[in-house]
Amino acid sequence: MKKILLFACAAATMVACNSEREYLTYRGVTMNTPLKAFTDSMTARGLVVDTANHDKETVIMSMPEGPGTLTISAVGDSIYQIVENYDATYNDSTRNLYRSRLDKAIEEYGHQPKMPINLEDHSEARFFSDKGTHILLLENTYTPHLSISYETRIEKE
């Protein structure tokens, strides 16, 4: 009986130690990838590092597909936040991008987001999961702006 109990405890310990946390992915790369490897992967996808705004724990990249920047924040070599920022000339540009990215996120997560603000020109959509938090923020109040954040921090609704 003692051996069975000892075996059960050992099996439970192995399962607990082997179950690694899953992370959000950004363009197919998980956010638990080391900062240098993640930056190299994004550079291979066509993004360009802004060397003027670069330091050890923050990397800013410009995106080739439009007027936007990508900010990667890390502590040491561990990424904790990725933020896409888009500025546009017209509100319709950011509204359309917000709508398409929101639809894509709803499809990916399989549920509606928590939306503390839901107006035509100011909306916030929050998706919570066991992988992290995904936030879409549309702010067309003064200038058309869209911010999309991926955070490794797990936040509960």
Description:
The protein has 157 residues and is an alpha+beta fold. It contains 3 helices and 10 strands; from the N terminus they run H-E-E-H-E-E-E-E-H-E-E-E-E. The strands form 2 sheets. It has an 8-stranded antiparallel β-sheet, covered by helices on one side. The longest helix has 19 residues. It starts with a helix and ends in a 6-residue tail after the last strand.
Provide key terms for this protein.
157 residues; alpha+beta; eight-stranded antiparallel beta sheet; two-stranded antiparallel sheet; 3 helices; 10 strands; 29% helix; globular; disordered N terminus
Oligomer: single chain
Mean pLDDT equals 83
SSE order: HEEHEEEEHEEEE
Principal-axes shape call? globular
Strand content: 35-45%
Span between termini: 44 Å
Radius of gyration: 19 Å
Range of helix content = 25-40%
Question: What is the overall number of helices?
Answer: 3
> Which class best fits the helix and strand makeup?
alpha+beta
What ranges have pLDDT less than 50 throughout 5 or more consecutive residues? 1-19
Summarize the main sheet: 8 strands, antiparallel
**Widest sheet, order of strands:** 3-4-5-6-10-9-8-7
User: Using DSSP, what is the number of strands?
Assistant: 10
